[in-house]
Each structure stands twice: as structure tokens, then as C-alpha cells.
Design a protein that fits this description.
Number of strands: 12
Largest sheet: 10 strands, antiparallel
Order of helices and strands: HHEEEEEEHEEEEEE
Number of helices: 3
Shape: globular
């Protein structure tokens, strides 16, 4: 996994920390607390109330109700390959998914996450990506352009004490559903138009995937 991170990691996936945390938490906290950055992702956890709702343009059933800011998120899918340098990659192993790691601001959700770590699963966790694409009208709202829906999730790690104002947690899951919207920009009409939507779902419980 460490070797693979050299190929897929982003700017915040470079410094492994406590419990295997993949983020540079000092940089994240400095950017969020001192720099007051605006996160571009939100997270919703079924059955866990955050008392925070955001006015966003929804994507299907995904909306801004009971959500939290996501400062960093890491999770990937992989399969065994012979070499990164062989033109025709062979896949002798099954597909695998890593745990999902999420960094959030400290919030009333944190003790509930610790409770869930000791008491069963979270039925559904949705991480949504936002973009300011809709202009005009009486209000400008961020629009959900991608939703990662994880089902039958087990909280595996919660660290609310190591990083000051931030909490890091990780979870495993059984099924993932990815919904992605394509947007085309039209400068003449002053609007951004949805031109397509792609949905893919994979269930690791029975090793089956489907496109919808």
C-alpha cells in the first residue's frame, strides 16, 4: 500500500501518521484554522446527527442535510499487477478496496463516532464533492457533482486528540456506489449544462459490479 501511494497520493496524502493516518495533519490544521480554507467536500453519516445543514444543489437523493466539512479524504481501489512498467497489465488477483480515511473539524459527531466504533455499523456514509457551477437567479449555491456512497460501514479508527482542532477517522465498507456528473460550460448562454451522468456500483460482499 505504501508503494502504491507514491503513484496515487495527492498533496495531503504524503505523511503517514498515528494509526496509519495518511494525511499531513499539521499542514491541514494550519490551512484550515489559520488560513480558513473552504472545504470542497462534505460527509453525511446515516444515524449520526451533526446539527449542520448546507444549502447546496442536490444530486438525486444526495443533499446538504446533516453534513460536516471534509478537510481531507483518502481511499483507493487496487488489483494485483505484474509491474507498473509492463504495457499489457495482467491481473492475477481480485480487486480490493482500502479503508477510507477522513479528516473533519472537531464536532458533536466525534463522540458518536467513538460510540459506533464500539457498537455496530453505520448503514451508509456519503462523501460528496461540491463545485460552484450554477449562476444566475436569486442565490448562488455549490452543486454536488460527485457522490461516493458507502454501505455497511464499520468505523475502525477514531483519533480526536492528536491533532488539535481536527479529528481523523477511518472506516471499511461492503459496497460502494459512485455517481459522477459531467458539466459542459457554455459562455454564450451564461450557464453550465449537465451533459451526462455515470453511475457505477460494486459490492465486495458478493464480488459483483454494475453500471447504472
Amino acid at each position: 500500500m505504501t508503494a502504491l501511494r507514491h503513484y496515487i497520493s495527492g498533496t495531503d496524502g504524503t505523511t503517514p501518521g498515528i494509526g496509519g493516518c495518511p494525511f499531513d495533519m499539521d499542514k491541514l490544521q494550519r490551512d484550515y484554522v489559520d488560513g480558513a480554507i473552504t472545504p470542497a467536500k462534505i460527509i453525511h453519516l446515516d444515524g449520526i446527527t451533526s446539527d449542520i445543514s448546507m444549502d447546496v444543489m442536490p444530486l438525486d437523493a444526495y443533499n446538504g442535510q446533516d453534513v460536516l466539512d471534509v478537510l481531507a479524504c483518502s481511499g483507493f481501489f487496487e488489483t494485483s499487477t505484474l509491474s507498473f512498467r509492463i504495457p499489457n497489465l495482467q491481473k492475477p488477483g481480485a480487486a480490493r478496496a482500502s479503508d477510507v480515511w477522513v479528516a473533519i473539524p472537531d464536532n458533536i459527531v466525534v463522540p458518536k463516532l467513538v460510540q459506533k466504533l464500539h457498537q455496530g455499523a453505520v448503514d451508509r456514509i456519503v462523501i460528496s464533492s461540491l463545485a460552484f457551477l450554477d449562476g444566475g437567479g436569486d442565490a448562488d449555491k455549490p452543486r454536488i457533482v460527485q457522490a461516493m456512497e458507502y454501505t455497511s460501514c464499520f468505523i475502525k479508527c477514531v483519533d480526536p486528540t492528536s491533532y488539535g482542532y481536527l479529528t481523523v477517522f477511518s472506516f471499511s465498507f461492503v459496497k460502494v456506489k459512485i455517481t459522477q456528473v459531467d458539466i459542459k460550460q457554455f459562455s454564450a448562454s451564461g450557464a453550465n449544462v449537465e451533459t451526462g451522468r455515470y453511475v457505477y456500483e460494486f459490492d465486495y460482499n458478493n464480488s459483483s459490479g454494475k453500471k447504472m
